DNA sequence: GTTGAAACCGGTTGTCT
DNA sequence: AGACAACCGGTTTCAAC
């Protein structure tokens, strides 16, 4: 059930590069192919690995801007949260959306081509929502670090 | 140089599931294996695909808490930014770090086991930095959406 | 957990249209 | 640029230790 040190090493390798062959992993951790193969399948089966994905290059694809925005909902309306969650889940520009503690309700991470593109998205998809009371946008000026690798 | 509609379809498929075989992709877009193979290699070579990774399940690995924190630096010290950037890049608990517009300087996304674990991380790694003037932490209470898939 | 073998399948390459 | 065919290498499953 719980991954041992060997399992965690395998997970660490795979979350850094999922194209490593079983052979390569096996040689790095001084095991033969069979147990490495079985461990990976087990980690997948048990849900330690959610999925395998390709990470694309934002800038190459014209998505040069990231904006974080704080959203406060109109809490008088009890449908607000459900409505907002469903809307946001459908918007492909929203990469992340979290309910957070503190002064506002949501923190969103949005990608856009540029400031103008973000403005269009904002006007057409966020500001029109009845459930939304207030939004503050923070533009990312420099991405110091961005990783999907968990510390394990 | 610029990906056409077919390339973008391939990218869309790969960023959703990088384990799709060339065969499967080919049949979905009504092409034979060869052009799909060549296009993927080209997209990799030209940097549209940054890397292939396994996305692990945070909760399964005991990393149940995500905290966003706003950090304001002591701008009197001109070494502050460099110092902070380098420190943060080395901290595995920090998944993302961005310089943002607005009232504070940085927005960090941090993972921890729990509130206590975050407190330890905070005390030992963030609050001790001379470059840091102020930090506000926002705990994620619910993750509505989290994806690595860009809208393309 | 290791080794070795065998079948299978996808990736890779060359050639042709 | 796409289709077809042949080869190579990794994956998968098995047996035996």
TrEMBL record, chains A, B:
GO biological process: regulation of DNA-templated transcription; response to amino acid
Protein's UniProt name: Winged helix-turn-helix transcriptional regulator
Protein origin, superkingdom: Bacteria
InterPro entries assigned: ArsR-like_HTH (IPR011991), AsnC-type_HTH_dom (IPR000485), Dimeric_a/b-barrel (IPR011008), Tscrpt_reg_AsnC-like (IPR019888), Tscrpt_reg_AsnC/Lrp_C (IPR019887), Tscrpt_reg_HTH_AsnC-type_CS (IPR019885), WH-like_DNA-bd_sf (IPR036388), WH_DNA-bd_sf (IPR036390)
Keywords in alphabetical order: DNA-binding, Transcription, Transcription regulation
Short name of one Pfam family: HTH_24
MF (Gene Ontology): sequence-specific DNA binding
Residue stretches making up the HTH asnC-type domain: 1-64
GO CC annotations, alphabetized: cytosol
Source organism of the structure: Salmonirosea aquatica
């Amino acid at each position: 059930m719980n991954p041992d040190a060997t399992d965690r090493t395998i997970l660490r390798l795979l979350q850094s590069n999922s194209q490593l062959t079983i052979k390569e992993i096996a040689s790095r951790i001084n095991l033969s192919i069979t147990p490495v193969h079985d461990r990976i399948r087990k980690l997948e089966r048990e849900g330690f690995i959610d999925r395998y994905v390709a990470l694309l290059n934002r800038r190459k694809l014209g998505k040069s801007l990231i904006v974080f925005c704080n959203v406060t909902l109109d809490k008088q309306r009890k449908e607000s949260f459900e409505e907002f969650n469903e809307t946001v889940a459908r918007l492909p520009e929203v990469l992340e959306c979290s309910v957070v503690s503190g002064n506002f309700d949501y923190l969103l991470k949005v990608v856009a081509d540029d400031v103008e593109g973000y403005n269009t998205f904002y006007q057409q998809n966020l500001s029109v929502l009845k459930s939304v009371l207030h939004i503050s946008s923070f533009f990312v000026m420099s991405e110091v670090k961005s990783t999907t690798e968990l510390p394990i």
